[in-house]
Design a protein that fits this description.
Layout lengths: L8 E7 L5 H13 L4 E5 L10 H12 L4 H14 L4 E6 L1 H7 L1 H11 L3 E4 L8 H10 L2 E6 L5 H10 L3 E5 L15 H9 L6 E4 L5 H8 L4 E4 L1 H14 L3 H33 L17
Parallel strand pairs: 1-2, 1-8, 2-3, 3-4, 4-5, 5-6, 6-7, 7-8
Helix pairs in contact: 1-3, 1-11, 3-5, 5-6, 9-11, 10-11
Length: 291
């Protein structure tokens, strides 16, 4: 049986409500217009321990604008009504979900069109109630894997995840980095020996060139701090201009897609020589569903 290749994708992260929901919705629509088919929407939290200064500031701006989980779900609903094909992963800390009520959250998230939940500070060992609710009601899950994750724990995470597995590309918090780990490709190759789900790589990816390089061995490339930084820059320089902010974001998305598309061309050539089957849309480096 021939192998089926997965679509390579850019997954942008946006802090919902930074600096307000209107801006987030506008930028999300701009990204989707550029071919983005999966979005991570962040839920602002006052103690974002996994995040570096850029996303911390984005979270603070979102909280100052009145952002909360209920408003993020309303935003998701509007985006899904306009773009039903787009997959949305809600990125949150546990506290906002716990305060909302886990069962209430899962039910409301499904109504809004959320595809999966990623709770950054929920260890898989403590996720029984969370997993049971998600599985019973049919909402997807994503868990994090790091370079220090043991094989035994990795197998638990692979079983608990349903959408994809998110590989943290480096130790420490989120934030833009000038380079990626020279061992990252080897780490992802080892991860693929134990995980059949798509693999997303995030934390520290800040350039289109890095996105292209990582897409040569990972399925999805997650970029967050860079987008938050562009938004922050635009607030200072362009004084909340939606058009100017959207243009900055679109340009970076275009650059990322160009680099990912270049890697896809090599990916397709290698696959063709092996007689592997490509998924619909593989050649353009945009869009595509999860397998």
């Amino acid at each position: 049986m021939k192998a089926q290749l997965r679509q390579k994708q850019l997954i942008p992260f946006l802090m919902a409500g930074d600096p307000n929901m209107e801006t987030t919705e506008y930028i999300a629509n701009e990204m989707i217009a550029e071919g983005v088919c999966t979005l991570e929407l962040g839920v602002a939290f006052s103690d974002p321990m996994a995040d570096g200064p850029t996303i911390q500031k984005a979270s603070a701006r979102a909280l100052a604008s009145g952002a909360n989980l209920a408003e993020v779900l309303k935003l998701t609903e509007r985006l899904k009504r306009k773009h039903p094909h787009v997959r949305i992963v809600l990125f949150s800390y546990l506290n906002p979900l716990f305060r909302f009520g886990l069962e209430n959250y899962v039910a409301r998230a499904l109504e809004a069109g959320v595809n999966a939940t990623l709770v950054v500070d929920l260890p898989v060992e403590e996720s029984a109630e969370f997993l049971a609710l998600h599985r019973r009601l049919g909402l997807g899950t994503v868990f994090l894997v790091s370079p220090t994750t043991t094989q035994a724990r990795l197998l638990k995470i692979a079983q608990a995840s349903s959408e994809f597995v998110y590989y943290v590309s480096r130790l420490g918090v989120t934030g833009e980095q000038s380079s990626i780990s020279p061992t990252l490709a080897t780490e992802i190759a080892a991860l693929k020996q134990h995980v059949s789900l798509p693999i997303a790589v995030g934390f520290g990816i800040s350039t289109a060139h890095q996105a292209g390089m990582i897409s040569s061995y990972a399925d999805f490339v997650v970029i967050g701090s860079r987008f938050c930084h562009l938004i922050e820059q635009s607030l200072i320089v362009n004084h909340y201009s939606l058009a100017a902010t959207g243009a900055l974001v679109r340009s970076f998305v275009q650059d990322c897609h160009e680099q990912i598309r270049a890697q896809n061309c090599e990916h397709i050539s290698r696959a063709a020589s092996k007689g592997e089957i490509l998924e619909k849309g593989e050649a353009d480096g945009k869009g595509g569903g999860h397998k």
